[in-house]
Write a structure and sequence with these properties.
With 447 residues, the protein is α+β, with helices and mostly antiparallel strands. Helix content is 33%, strand content 27%. It contains twelve helices and 20 strands. Helix 5 crosses helix 11 and helix 10 packs across helix 11. The longest helix has 23 residues. The model has no long low-confidence stretch (mean pLDDT 90).
C-alpha cells in the first residue's frame, strides 16, 4: 500500500528543489494543516541563504545583485518535494511570510494550491493535459453504473454471485475541454477484504496542456449543477491529474502509458466536511440527469457562464449554511436582480431600459419563464420578496419580520431552482411534481 499520502495533520520532512542551480538542494517540512498545504524552509545566513531572497527579495536591496538578475526573488510557481515516502509536486506556490531571529536563523513559509502525489518534475505540472474529479452525489445524479450482478443457486444450496463490469464507460458531456463522465470498475484488495469500487468521475482532457484553473472550471460547474438540484453544496471527494510530460515508464525508461496521480487541494473544498453530508445516501434532487439529459447539462454549462453575475452570489450562500437570514436575503436579492437584468437584455431591452427596471420588475421577468406550479403565486412572490429585500437593504424602509424574511428567501430559492430547471429542459409536470416533494416546499413556522 502506498505511503505517499498527505492527509490532514500530516507532517513530512524531506528535500526540495526547483531545477535552479542557484538554489541548492534544501531540507524542508511539508504539512497538511487541515485548511492549507504549507511548506516550511529553514536557512541560516551562512548556509543556503539564497532561499532568503524568495521571501525578502522585494523588501531589501542586495549589494551582490543590485539589478536582481543573478538570483530568484520570488517563490517558484511549482516546487519538487522528495522524502522516503515518495515525491510530491507542489503547484501554485506563494510566499506566506518569513521569520528571522538574532544569530542568522530564519524560516520561510510557502502555501501551495495543489499537491500532486507521485508527480515527477515540477515543470511538468505547471499545466496539465487531464484532470478527473469525484464529486459527492455525482454517480447518483447521473445514475451511472457499469456493474451487474447475477446470482445462481448451486447444487449444494449455496448462491454463486457473478459481478460483470465494463472496465471504463465514458459519456461525453460538453465540448469544452472534452468534458466527459467516466465510470470505472476498481477492485481494491489492499486490506483483508476485497472491495468492489465503482467511482464516477468528471474528466477534462486536451492534447495541448492547459492551466489548472482552466481544467477546474468545468468541474466546478458540474458541482454547482448538483448544488442547484440538491440545494446543498456537494464536496469533491478526490482529484487526480495527468500530464503527457510525466508518463508511466518501464524500468528501462520507455514510455508505457498514462500516469494518473492523486491531487490534494483545499481550492475546491475550502470548509471542513459536514457530518452526514453524503448526497449519495439520503438526498432527494429536485431534478437529475434523466430529466435534463446531456443536452440539458450542456445548456447548464452555457447558462452558468452567461448568468454568472447572478448565480455566483446565490450559490455562495450554500457555502455558509449558518449565515443570518438578512445575509441570505441580501445575497439572494443581488443574484436575482442580476438574472432579471440579463433576461431583460436578452429580450431586446436596451441597457438603459434594463437598468431602469426596478427590483420587483426584474423578479417578475424571472417568474415569467416558469410554467410549473411553485406552490405559491409567482407575481405575489415578486412583490413580497421585493418588500423583504428593500426592507433589509435600506434603513429608511420598514424592517421585515424574521419569519417573513425567511420565507421570502425560501420561496426565492425555489423560484431560482425552478427557473434553472426550466432552462435545462425539465418537463413542466415533472417539475411540479418534484417541487411538491422538495423539502423547501413547506413554509417555515415559529413554534
Amino acid at each position: 500500500m502506498s505511503r505517499n499520502l498527505l492527509e490532514p495533520d500530516a507532517h513530512r520532512v524531506g528535500f526540495i528543489f526547483d531545477n535552479d542551480e542557484r538554489t541548492p538542494y534544501q531540507a524542508a517540512l511539508l504539512e497538511n494543516t487541515g485548511t492549507n498545504l504549507v511548506l516550511t524552509i529553514p536557512w541560516h545566513d551562512d548556509i543556503n541563504a539564497e532561499y532568503s531572497r524568495w521571501f525578502m527579495g522585494r523588501d531589501m536591496r542586495w549589494g551582490d545583485d543590485p539589478d536582481r538578475s543573478k538570483f530568484a526573488y520570488m517563490v517558484p510557481e511549482c516546487i519538487d518535494f522528495h522524502d522516503n515516502d515518495g515525491s510530491v509536486v507542489l503547484v501554485g506556490c506563494r510566499s506566506a511570510g518569513y521569520r528571522s531571529q538574532f544569530g542568522g536563523h530564519s524560516r520561510g513559509r510557502i502555501t501551495a494550491r495543489y499537491a500532486v502525489l507521485g508527480g515527477d518534475g515540477a515543470s511538468a505540472y505547471q499545466k496539465i493535459n487531464a484532470l478527473q474529479s469525484e464529486i459527492d452525489g455525482l454517480a447518483r445524479w447521473f445514475a451511472t453504473s457499469t456493474l451487474e450482478r447475477s446470482d445462481e443457486l448451486t447444487e449444494h444450496g449455496w448462491t454463486s454471485s457473478t459481478y460483470t463490469a465494463q472496465h471504463r464507460a465514458r459519456l461525453p458531456i460538453a465540448h469544452g475541454l472534452n468534458l466527459t463522465l467516466v465510470t470505472s470498475f476498481e477492485p481494491d484488495e489492499s486490506g483483508r477484504d476485497t472491495v468492489l469500487k465503482e467511482p464516477t468521475r468528471v474528466e477534462t482532457r486536451v492534447a495541448d496542456a492547459r492551466s489548472w484553473s482552466q481544467h477546474m472550471a468545468p468541474h466546478l460547474a458540474i458541482r454547482d449543477l448538483l448544488a442547484v438540484a440538491a440545494w446543498k453544496t456537494p464536496r469533491f471527494l478526490s482529484h487526480r491529474a495527468m500530464t503527457d510530460s510525466d508518463p508511466a515508464r518501464s524500468l528501462s525508461g520507455a514510455r508505457i502509458g498514462e500516469a494518473w496521480h492523486p491531487v490534494v487541494t483545499y481550492a475546491t473544498n475550502p470548509s471542513p466536511a459536514e457530518e452526514g453530508a453524503d448526497l449519495d445516501l439520503d438526498h432527494l434532487f429536485l431534478f437529475n440527469a434523466s430529466h435534463v439529459h446531456v443536452a440539458g447539462v450542456r445548456r447548464w454549462m452555457k447558462l452558468r457562464n452567461d448568468f454568472s453575475r447572478g448565480i455566483d452570489p446565490i450559490l455562495s450562500s450554500l457555502q455558509n449554511p449558518g449565515a443570518p437570514v438578512p445575509s441570505r436575503v441580501t445575497e439572494m436579492g443581488i443574484g436575482l436582480e442580476a438574472i432579471g437584468y440579463e433576461l431583460l437584455l436578452q429580450d431586446g431591452e436596451s441597457p438603459r431600459a434594463a437598468r431602469g427596471a426596478n427590483f420587483r420588475e426584474r423578479l417578475e421577468r424571472i417568474a415569467r419563464d416558469i410554467s410549473s406550479d411553485l406552490g405559491f403565486e409567482p407575481m405575489a412572490w415578486a412583490q413580497r420578496m421585493s418588500d423583504v429585500y428593500n426592507g433589509t437593504k435600506h434603513a429608511n424602509r420598514e424592517k421585515p419580520e424574521f419569519l417573513e424574511s425567511l420565507n421570502g428567501w425560501r420561496q426565492s430559492v425555489q423560484v431560482f431552482r425552478a427557473w434553472i430547471a426550466s432552462q435545462l429542459g425539465v418537463d413542466t409536470e415533472k417539475l411540479t411534481e418534484r417541487l411538491a416533494l422538495d423539502r423547501l416546499s413547506h413554509p417555515y413556522e415559529l413554534r
